[in-house]
Amino acid sequence: MTVALPFMKGTFAATSDQISWIMVAFVVGSAVSSASIGWFANRYGRRSMFIMAIIGFAASLVGCALSPSLEAAVFWRFVQGLSGAALLPLGQTIALNAMPDDRFSLATSVWALGFVSMGIISPTFAGYIIEADGWPLMFGAAVPVVLVLLVISIAVIEPDEPDPQPMDWLGFSTLLLALGCLQLGLSRGERLGWMDSTEVMASLLAAAAFFWMFIVQSKTSKTPFISPELFKNRNYVMGSFFVFMIGAVMFLPLLFMPLVLERVADFPANEIGLAFAPRGVGSVLGFLFMARYGDNVDPRFVLAFGLISLMTAAWMMSLWSVNVTFYHVVMANLVYGLSAASIWAPLNRITLSSLPKHLRNVGFPLFYLNFEMGSAIGTALFVSLYSRMVQSSYTLIGYSVTPYRESFSFLDRTGGWDRKETTDMAALASEIGRQAEMIAFTNTSLAMVAVFAAMIPVVLMLQRR
User: Fold this and answer.
1) Looking at the chain, which terminus has fewer C-beta neighbours within 10 angstroms, N or C?
2) pLDDT at 150 (0 to 100)
3) How far apart are CA 341 and CA 241, in angstroms?
4) What secondary structure does DSSP assign to 248-290, as a single string?
């Protein structure tokens, strides 16, 4: 999806913050789905909900491909988030419940291999598809694959016995309202000036109020929407916080990197997609190792290694310039791919393996809700940081570009930029913009390094499983 953003921006004549609604809508839909899918799975059965999610996902792909406007694309991305987010926890629950408990690490690694690797490999194929026939085909090409998955699911997945639970409608409503208000405030914050905007402040205050109401209702209700038993499990609580932080920063390069490579480094779409391929290679290698040796290694050590790998990849990106080469992009993505396997497989094992089966329908979606919320908050904050860095860097460089500085004396030389020519000054402004964007990208990468480093102590708080 991120590979297509620059091209969708041109199709819909949208600004950077407007096109970000396509990503935000998906995150909002994912959050709503993740919050409620546990109850619906208990009520109607995992198999039924999984099949309905596949149908909804296929419909959203068709809708995205045929979207005539930005508003339509945002709506269908919301539907895609609703259905797609349900596939993750339901698919994992179905897979893990089909395996014996002593094969949890193998089942988790194999499942995570598909989840992470396809999300990383897909930009490669998306790049070639977009370059060949435009971004709508990127969505359309996935429809046959999803339909095949639908047929296989209907044929292979065994029906499960529903376990209807009373619905805490007040708890459910306050949680959804809190998530919706939070997402609205985060998505509008950068455009409206955050604390200077009454709308943004009202949205964030409403989110805080609804979250408080949800907590009070959960503590007082006889049948709370989310079982308090989940929060008595130390590893589940710490793992949920860990995945929240991972969601906030781990996949930010998938948002920023295609934009920077296309606008700053002049990479064509197919090369951008190809540059992401090593992520998939690294992930496959890492997950194969975890599937074979995961039960014999302390998952805390693997998590620490994964964080160090993420720090290394982010540090590598912080050294890029506007002349970054294909080789440097590939190497950073390869390290990122290895780190993905070192994070997801042990984190799933150490957090979810201790949950009893009767809590998995609720516990797994809540785990991914934490990831989605971390992704939403992290994306909003880092996009704001990135935008402000672009502006400040552009201003600082602009002040420095003057014919009175010896380093810029080429402005008046033959063959250089002529200050009297409008086209030359436009080219100079464009070059300053390129440099400012790359400075913002490298500084954002350094901020990611700091966040990953701060997460290492959390690993020490986890208990081995």
Assistant:
1) C
2) 92
3) 19
4) HHTTHHHHHHHHHHHHTS---HHHHHHHHHHHHHHHHHHHHHH
Per-residue tokens: 91 = 């698919």
Q: Which amino acid is at 134?
A: G
| Secondary-structure percent of the chain, ordered helix, strand, coil, rounded to 5 | 85, 0, 15
d(C-alpha 110, C-alpha 340), whole Å: 13
How do residues 279-321 score in pLDDT, each as one tens digit? 777 777 777 776 666 667 788 888 898 899 999 999 999 999 8
Q: What angle do CA 337, 249, 127 make, to 5 degrees?
A: 50
Average the pLDDT over 230-240 and give the result.
86
Token pair listed for 187: 């998505």
Residue 290 to residue 286: CA distance in whole angstroms? 6
pTM: 0.76
Residue-level pLDDT at 59: 94
pLDDT-derived band at 38, boundaries 50, 70, 90: confident
> Can you read off the two tokens belonging to residue 450?
């700091």
Q: With contact defined as beta carbons under 8 Å apart, do 135 and 66 qualify?
A: no
Contact 186, 199 (CB under 8 A): no
Q: Which two tokens stand for residue 76?
A: 């269908």
Q: Which tokens is 86 given?
A: 């349900």
- CA-based torsion, 232, 234, 236, 238: positive or negative: positive
Three-state secondary structure call for residue 23: helix
Q: What is the DSSP string of 182-208?
A: HHHHHHHHHHHTGGG-HHHHHHHHHHH
For 231, the token pair is 């929060």
Q: Quickly tell me which residue has 């950068």 as its tokens.
A: 190
58 closest CA partner among 42, 78, 39, 79: 79
The pLDDT score that the predictor gives to residue 414 is 45
HSE-up of 237 (CA within 13 Å, CB side)?
Answer: 9
Task: Provide the token pair at 2.
Answer: 């991120």
Q: Give me the DSSP letters along 61-115.
A: HHHHHT--SHHHHHHHHHHHHHHHHHHHHHHHHHHHHTS-GGGHHHHHHHHHHHH
**Full set of structural domains in the chain with CATH:** 2-167+225-391+436-460 (1.20.1250.20)
